[in-house]
Amino acid sequence: MDIRLETFITVVRIKSFTKASEILNITQPAVSQHIKFLEVYYGVIFIKKCGKSIKLTEEGKILYKYAIELDSIYRNLEIEFRNKDNINKTYYVGASMTIGGYILPYILAEYKNCYKNIDILLQVNNTEEILKKLLNRKIDLALIEGNFDKEKFKYIKYKDDELVLAVSPLHEFAKYKNITLGEILKGKLILRENGSGTREIFKNKLLEMDYDLKDFNPYMELGSITAIKSLVESNLGYSIISKETVKKEVELGIIKIIPIKGLKIFREFNFVYLKDSDEEFIKNFIGFCVNYHHL
């Protein structure tokens, strides 16, 4: 489809000119030029900048509605032609535990429905192990949580994730509006193992707040998110965990999220790959993931 409409859709979905330029692999000035072209062509303003965020005008909402319809038509056309190709291709994707267990499986199922000649084999491990597999070329693309060496890899941000305090409704913490970090560290805190992105982000936050890690001694350390959630549900401890992983339990009322006083912990989910990777597959797959909730 028209690259300018594709740019417009991406900017609206990502809500950022900078991040849209990374996903589309064009410069930020080029993104601005594409939007400007559309506005000049139609003689109206589509996007207004409000500080660091952006806001659609009423005309922008109309354009977005029709652009989505056009995008869907072109996507279906591309899928039909790709699926007529008899060549089957296999790609290996690695994901850290939170993403691999709670986000990517649903996307992969939909991806397979669209691209029947492409097989994606998923490998799930902690962030440290997934990055090792990527460096050793055992996987083609990684989707990870937590920090990584941005000099070694190419990367594109997927989205932000929040780490929250998850407790049983029967736990004493559930009675309060919020809990201090000091109180959390004194009790039965269950955390992921060393090497996990969740664990690293939490430790970095403690350092940022001048806590001495010598006194940091979790009640339990587990490599399984499912096991951690089971322990929390059974009121055998509580955890700092990704909000994504406890959505269902919170809806069912078997786990409760309690705010941490004066503190919010965010981290990024990033697509990470090597410089000489299969750019066509990577761009296609990342675009599919970004657009997944809009399909």
Compact description:
The chain is of the alpha/beta class. It contains twelve helices and eleven strands. The chain has three domains: 3-84, Arc Repressor Mutant, subunit A (Orthogonal Bundle), CATH 1.10.10; 89-159 and 269-294, Periplasmic binding protein-like II (D-Maltodextrin-Binding Protein, domain 2, 3-Layer(aba) Sandwich), CATH 3.40.190.10; 161-265, D-Maltodextrin-Binding Protein, domain 2.
Please count the beta strands (DSSP E, at least 2 residues each). Answer: 11
CATH class of the largest domain: Alpha Beta
Q: State the CATH architecture of the largest domain.
A: 3-Layer(aba) Sandwich
Secondary structure category: alpha/beta
Strand proportion: 15-25%
List low-confidence stretches.
none
